[in-house]
Amino acid sequence: MIELQKIISVLEGVETLNFKNVLVKGIAYHTDRVEEGYIFVCIKGYQTDGHLYAQKAASKGALVLIVEDFIEGIAIPQVKVSNSRKALAQISAYFYGYPSKDMVMIGVTGTNGKTTTTFLIDRVLQKAYGKTGLIGTVIVKNGDSYIPAELTTPESLDLQRYLWEMKENNIKYTTMEVSSSGLDLNRVDTIDYKIAVVNNISRDHIDLHGSFENYVNAKKKLVRNLKADSVAILNGDCTETLNFGIETIAPKITFGIKNPFTSVVAESIDLSKSETSYKLKVNETLVFDGREIQPQEFEVKLKIMGLHNVYNSLVAATVGLIMGVDVADIQKALYEFRGVERRFQLIYNDEFKIIDDHFANPGNIRITLDTIKKMNYSQFLLVYAIRGSRGVTVNSENARVIAENKELFGLKNIILTTSNDYVGKKDIVTDDELNCVVKILEEGGIKTQIYPTLAEGVKRAIDLAQKDSLILLGGCQGMDFGAKIALDYIYQKIVSRQKLSVKTLKELKDKIYEPLKDRVAGI
Ligand SMILES: CC(=O)N[C@H]1[C@@H](OP(=O)(O)OP(=O)(O)OC[C@H]2O[C@@H](n3ccc(=O)[nH]c3=O)[C@H](O)[C@@H]2O)O[C@H](CO)[C@@H](O)[C@@H]1O[C@H](C)C(=O)N[C@@H](C)C(=O)N[C@H](CCC(=O)O)C(=O)O
Ligand SMILES: Nc1ncnc2c1ncn2[C@@H]1O[C@H](COP(=O)(O)OP(=O)(O)OP(=O)(O)O)[C@@H](O)[C@H]1O
């Protein structure tokens, strides 16, 4: 229990009403989580206003309200601040004893690749140091245990609690995804990142931020807040990302594959097989935390495919190098990693291949198609599930990138579907969303086959597949519905073609569903 006076001493310019120095047991920003003796922080949100729930919070036992406007008729102490989200971040960090100060915090932002890159970095650090923390879109991992994540970057209160739990578990290295919303909505205020990574910047989340400029500006907060003894790791092939360099006083390390003058570069990249390989070259002496890493080169091999994963693994290797991890451990950790679900995930690799990918924004679509161009296959089939609820602008931008890559698509080998048979009401694809995609593809000279349900679309692609075809399940496929439909259908087809004994049937089932067994394969 902490005195209210002490907690609010970390806030600037507060005004109080009915002040009493009560003892505080906890903090909540949602009424559902309020308990006796808690502070309730009233946040003016996008959907509703937390101030409207103050009475309910008080009746559940809240002892104090943090408000942006005093609320009449509630007798408990009220502390008025100019920004409740900011205040939530500050009091949460104080309440949990600033746990991040005892850890090396690594923050990864960027439009694409945050999840994969954080998993890869975590793998490298885990190999070297044993217990590590990882926070992102898929999971929150504290050493050996993990829970599914609610957001990419948790709300500040939850984030501080996770970090406190990690500190209690003696975790010294935590890697986390830092989303634009996380930065914009003060979720990571008070966290000092020792290493900040900016993977790449392209258009995304315009619906959340209002404009691309606002989105980029939100992301820049990550490097702006770095101290001089930290480091910014920037993608040297992406001009938008390189611009982040002038926003920070921290030293910079660049990585890339196109610009041979980046600090760390990947050369001789081979994407033609089911495994990826390249030569990592450190072009200059890297200095971090009193360590000097001399120019050198070594081989990197990956089980995960795709040009984007060359970038993601370059970042992880760079973090490993500057953290003093042995090259052999870096190589092993990167090679052992089997990928994260729906991130260019190879889910079937037999007479033909099936890859499952988000395919969600222009950057992600472009790099996925660029990778596909470098692969060997007899025929490429794209099952593209349009994103419901994202609107015409987002869907048109995505369709334009597909149309720019016309050379990949022969006659009618884009199968357009919706996931209306699987998603909830709010994600149903509207006629406008479907029509804008069809129009852009047709204007770009690409013909499509349209199937209203995901099940029909996926099955059609499998029926069309020939030896060495490559099927990409891209777009909104729910969590893994597209993958499940595909594997179920392949299983049924094989079973109906052959007379199999129970033992071989089981073997077949195990083999086919293997990639889905452990969907968070990074663990
Ligand atoms: C768009 C967005 O970021 N929304 C976040 C925002 O919600 P909001 O402003 O709409 O909140 P609201 O529903 O209006 O409620 C206002 C306040 O009243 C409280 N309330 C509300 C109802 C009630 O019964 N009782 C109650 O106390 C709420 O807890 C909240 O404090 O603040 C909430 C509390 O902090 C977040 O949970 C919520 O994330 C929602 C769930 C979400 O989907 N966010 C996504 C868009 C997001 O943040 N994504 C990024 C990745 C995307 C990127 O790269 O930027 C991420 O980091 O996950
Ligand atoms: N470095 C990269 N550059 C461009 N695209 C990438 C990169 N890494 C991954 N991608 C693409 O983005 C998709 C999502 O990858 P990942 O989940 O790692 O990114 P993310 O930024 O965390 O996105 P999300 O928050 O949706 O999980 C991948 O399937 C892949 O197609």
Automatic annotation (TrEMBL):
GO BP of this protein: cell division; cell wall organization; peptidoglycan biosynthetic process; regulation of cell shape
Pathway: Cell wall biogenesis; peptidoglycan biosynthesis
Annotated localization: Cytoplasm
Presence of keyword Nucleotide-binding: yes
Homology family: Belongs to the MurCDEF family. MurE subfamily.
Name of the protein described by the UniProt record: UDP-N-acetylmuramoylalanyl-D-glutamate--2,6-diaminopimelate ligase
Entries under PANTHER family matching the protein: MUR LIGASE FAMILY MEMBER, UDP-N-ACETYLMURAMOYL-L-ALANYL-D-GLUTAMATE--2,6-DIAMINOPIMELATE LIGASE MURE HOMOLOG, CHLOROPLASTIC
An annotated Gene Ontology molecular function: ATP binding
Domain of life: Bacteria
Membrane spanning stretches: none
Domain Mur ligase central stretches: 108-319
InterPro entries attached to this UniProt entry: Folylpolyglutamate_synth_CS (IPR018109), Mur-like_cat_sf (IPR036565), Mur_ligase_C (IPR004101), Mur_ligase_C_dom_sf (IPR036615), Mur_ligase_cen (IPR013221), Mur_ligase_N (IPR000713), MurE/MurF_N (IPR035911), UDP-N-AcMur-Glu-dNH2Pim_ligase (IPR005761)
Organism: Anaerobranca californiensis DSM 14826
Limits of the Mur ligase N-terminal catalytic domain: 25-96
Keywords: ATP-binding, Cell cycle, Cell division, Cell shape, Cell wall biogenesis/degradation, Cytoplasm, Ligase, Nucleotide-binding, Peptidoglycan synthesis
SUPFAM superfamilies, per the entry: MurD-like peptide ligases, catalytic domain, MurD-like peptide ligases, peptide-binding domain, MurE/MurF N-terminal domain
Domain Mur ligase C-terminal: 342-475
Cellular-component GO terms for this entry: cytoplasm
